[in-house]
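Researcher: Please generate the 3D structure of the following complex. Treat every line as part of one assembly.
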Amino acid sequence: MSLTLDDVKRVAHLARIAISDNEAQATHTQLTGIFELIAQMEAVDVSAIAPMSHAQDVVQRLRADVVTEHNLREPFQAVAPQVDAGLYLVPQVLD
Amino acid sequence: MRHATLRQLCDGLSAGKFSSVEVTQAFLNKINELNSTLNCFISVDAARSLAQAQAADALRAAGKAQPLTGVPIAQKDIFCTQGWLTTCGSKMLSNFVSPYDAHVVERFNTAGVVNLGKTNMDEFAMGSSNETSFYGPVRNPWDRDRVPGGSSGGSAAAVAARLAPAATGTDTGGSIRQPAALTGICGLKPTYGVVSRYGMIAFASSLDQGGPMARTADDLGLMLNVMAGFDARDSTSLQRDTEDYTRDLTKPLAGLRIGLPKEFFAAGASADVARAVESAIAEYRKLGCDIVEVSLPNMGLSVPVYYVLAPAEASSNLSRFDGVRYGHRAAEYSDLTDMYEKSRAEGFGAEVKRRILIGAYVLSHGYYDAYYIRAQKLRRLIAQDFTEAFKKCDVIMGPTSPSTAFKIGEKSGDPVQMYLSDIYTIAVNLAGLPGMSIPCGFDSGGLPVGLQIIGNYFSEAHMLNVAHQYQQATDWHTRAPAGIT
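Model: Done. Output below.
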């Protein structure tokens, strides 16, 4: 599975990171080296192994269905790039 | 006063030999003098630190002091600190004044501990040299042309240079232990789930763990006593009885079984590192420990597995930085997608972007099973290796890092070489085990070498005992870099 230049551009768009042709080229070279390292994983037969997502196999905690968060809109919006009347402003999406 | 350990500062404060304001001012003065060269701190707010010190002195005068009340420490700039710039070493958050405290910060505040400032780090904790910071590289106090390691490089260099008696760090693949080794200090990554991740800016959530950095094992225990504790706001925080992590420090080590993984010594540590680690093992023999050979056959897979899992989690975690709710927003854009893409392209540095792209790729349609699921399966094999090894031994030892501190710029153009500098530490994070590094000697150039001690789950108090006994018999941990007065 070798990574192509188009893969790099496609993934950059998926990750919402603008990338120029020159940057994509340089990134492609570096990622190819990293994926050669990652390819070492293919040497092992993993068919009988269960995936491990977390270090401790503990059960997810449950809690009472009550409100625990209080309203922090003002302090949170104080650090936002652009707000108005309690709303986060972004470029218009619908005409 | 600045050369005192955390324990000595606590004792001095409690005996009334000096005040918190005096101690804090002494450290702030030295930070002011050295930070322009070492670049350990991203932000310092002397007025605020001194106000905390005054409050701590008042608490003590009122008879309400806790063990660490009034001692000053440094906080890695990954921990959200209310009203304080919290950048995570990134341009993306270069304007982010946190509206809330991380759990760890809350606990230090409650304990009356003074914050000296926020330490420099690799951007979003992604790096092993502190060179990926938007705020520039940190310089190693032992040789200012060299890196302090990373990602907790600012915390490590600050403690080594006596700009703070202790500091917080975080460790996703070695980010506490490797910089501790490269700067000649001690660092402990606790068992996953012991320290809450709430307010600790997320990199790879299934691996990230906060922990202490200091100059002695005893001081690590004092720090961990404050940092550890259940927090309902972190769904992976473990509900356990409160421990005193210093309780076992003085126990003798006779009969302790130390496991040496044969793969650690075959994996290409430099001759100087291998020699220092072997001398440390010889010292442990003198303390009555038994040495047994163990095997971690899948250790070599830990770096490839990590560079699938950590970027996958990072690509998801860092999707929150979109230029809408906080952080950097591009000045010009044509529409919403363009705003996201430009804000993120401008706000993130090269290494962070690289890891987001790796993560997005391995999680994308058609590749998920081949990369992500395969890596999770191998993660189980790596964790099982440790379970087997701990049937034969009580702790595992080896090098922390294959080399001592390398030159600034030496590896920054070659990500794969940089990634391999965490070869000895990554498997511990994948398994969720506690690991620590303590100084155990110097290379021929006078640069410090770290000994890694890996324990079984929740054995932090025992590991600190193992480290403390070594520090009673040796003096490597007391050495200071030349010119640090």
